[in-house]
Write a structure and sequence with these properties.
- By secondary structure, the chain is of the alpha+beta class.
- It has 10 helices and 5 strands.
- The strands form 2 sheets. Strands 1-5-2 form a 3-stranded antiparallel beta sheet, sandwiched between helices.
- The structure holds cobalamin and iron/sulfur cluster (2 copies).
- The site of one iron/sulfur cluster has 10 residues, from helix 6 and helix 8.
């Protein structure tokens, strides 16, 4: 949760709540049983998100915002860092205090009230071995840049099947991520959208 961004939120907004899936199979099973998944039309997860978060926004008198609506994209990366519960990791991606590098967002709710949320601690500060840094086999990730062509080139090789079917090795290597692991089929679906 963070202060509302006046460039994106209505004037009566009091907070911006970032919303993403939990680890485990529960959310993924729910999405796969949804009408958006079963109708076979494109972008089922974005359409599910719009229905689910749009419904919550209406119920609580707020407004829903979505990460894939762009370009220009709403600055979820900056919002995440401003929330105090996420930070940029040594491999560039966002790391969440409890979800690790698996964290991602289905959307955000601009709400006309605030919510009490506990403070979070940056997990990297107490992570002595930093396994995320050595996990990518081709060194595509760093704190300053993501070498997307290098990542795609590796995914085109037979060795890349592991990332394609189970998700990015760096995201999996984080000990916080491990506690919040996703089912492989969820990671495989997202990787298939990224690496078509
Ligand atoms: C464009 C985009 C990408 C692009 C460009 C990334 C780049 N560095 O060039 C591509 C398509 C490559 C990409 C890939 C992925 N992305 Co992306 N991406 C976005 C998006 C839609 C917009 C970012 C943007 O351009 N903002 C505008 C610029 C000006 O702001 P910025 O803060 O400087 O943006 C930078 C960061 O967002 C960063 N970034 C974006 N994605 C990623 C992924 C990685 C691995 C890294 C290191 C950095 C990075 O690159 C941007 C440009 O420098 C955001 C959603 C959003 N609305 O913010 C998601 C987002 C940042 N991505 C996300 C995710 C989950 C991914 C994937 C893991 C998805 C997947 N397939 O599973 C992959 C990475 C593949 C892997 N190794 O596993 C998550 C964040 C996850 C995290 N823990 O950090 C976001 C927030 C989307 C979401 N719905 O949650 N992404
Ligand atoms: S492996 Fe350690 S340093 Fe890397 S993101 Fe996870 S907690 Fe942070
Ligand atoms: S998906 Fe695989 S190749 Fe791409 S950045 Fe992650 S570990 Fe590296």
């Amino acid at each position: 949760m963070l202060a509302p961004d006046p460039d994106f939120c209505p004037p009566d907004a009091r907070c911006l709540l970032l919303i993403g899936p939990q680890g485990g199979a529960r959310w993924w099973d729910k999405v796969q049983a949804s009408p958006e998944w079963l109708d076979g039309a494109p972008d089922p997860i974005d359409r599910w998100s719009k229905r689910a978060l749009g419904g919550l926004a209406t119920r609580f008198g707020g407004m829903a915002l979505f990460p894939s609506e762009g370009p220009p994209y709403p600055p979820f990366f900056r919002w995440a860092q401003d929330s105090g519960a996420l930070w940029q990791s040594p491999v560039g991606m966002l790391v969440h205090a409890r979800q690790g590098l698996w964290v991602s967002f289905r959307g955000a709710l601009a709400l006309p009230f605030t919510l009490p949320l506990p403070p979070a601690e940056r997990p990297c500060d107490s992570c002595d071995t930093r396994p995320c840094e050595a996990a990518c086999p081709v060194g595509a990730l760093s704190a300053t840049a993501y070498d997307v062509p290098r990542c795609h080139a590796y995914l085109d090789t037979p060795a890349g099947t592991d990332c394609l079917t189970r998700g990015c090795l760096a995201r999996r290597a984080c000990p916080i991520s491990v506690r919040h692991a996703r089912v492989d089929s969820q990671s495989a679906y997202h990787m298939s959208r990224f690496h078509r």
